[in-house]
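I am writing to request your help with a piece of structural work I have in hand. A protein sequence and the structure tokens that stand for its backbone fold form the material at issue. Please examine both parts with care and let me know of anything in them that strikes you as inconsistent. The record follows directly beneath this note.
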Amino acid sequence: LTAALTGEAEVGEGDPDGSGKARVLFFPNRNLACFQLNLTKVGEPTRVHIHQGAAGVNGPIAISFFDTVVENPVPAPPNLIGCVTAERDVIERILANPANYYVNVHTEAYPAGAVRGQLYD
């Protein structure tokens, strides 16, 4: 799945100069979600998640890709690649209706969300 990330897509104030692209691969049989993020003018990401929610609606975190506030205080680069474990039923719900989920990148300057984009095939 893919998401085009912009500050304009944030509910509330997002980064007006920030943009990016997220690619997500799911492996439900292995409880695995892998991601690649390419960010432009976003600043250092502090947290990256997939949230449940339609466009224009904030929602709960479904999958956390990383949270440097808790897990790793070292600044992250603008291009991020990794895999995390995720519950199979969560992965299956995302795959069944990707438009009801969005990728959200948080930064220190925009802790509620710098850029966001709905997932699509």
